[in-house]
Amino acid sequence: MLKNYFKTALRSLLKNKSFTLINIIGLAIGISAAIVIYLVVQYDFSFEKFQPDGNRIYRIVSDISFQGEVSHNSGVPVPLNKVINGITGVQAAAPFHVYSEGDARVSIPTIHNTPTVFKNADNILVCDQKYFSFIPYHWMAGTAVTALQQPNSVVLTASRAKMYFPGMQPKQTLNKVIVYDDTLRLSVTGIVADLDANTDFKFHDFISYTTFKNEAISSTGGDMDGTSGVGAWGHTSSFDQLFIKVNQQAAVKNIKQQLDALITKNTNRSSKATEAHVFKLQPLSDLHFNTDFDNFDQRVANKSVLYSLLGVAAFLLLLGCINFINLTTAQASQRAKEIGIRKTVGGTRLQLVAQLLTETFLLTLAATLISVFLAIYLIKAFSSFIPAGITYHQLFSWPILLFAVLLMVVITLLAGFYPALILSGYQPVQIIKSQHGMPNVKGNALMLRKSLTVFQFAIALFFIMTTLLVGKQIHYIVNKDLGFKKDAVLYIRTPVNSANTDLKQVYCNKLKAIPQIENLGFGGDAPSSPNSHSTTFRYTNGKTEHENDVELKFADTNYLNVYHIKLLAGRNLQAQDSTSNFIINQTYAKLLGFNKPEQAVGQLVTVDHKREQIIGVVADFYQKSLHQAIKPMVLCYGRSGKNMRTIHIALKPQMAGAESWKAALAQMQNAWQQVFPDNDFEFRFVDESIARFYKAEQNTAQLLNWATVISILISCLGLLGLAIFTTNQRTKEIGIRKVMGAGISQIIALLTTDFVKLIVIGFVIALPFAWYAMNQWLQDYAYHTSISIWIFALAIIIVLLIALLSMSVQTFKAATANPIKSLRSE
Question: Which of 71, 134, 502, 704 qualifies as a FRET site for 452, CA 20 to 30 Å off?
Answer without folding.
Answer: 704
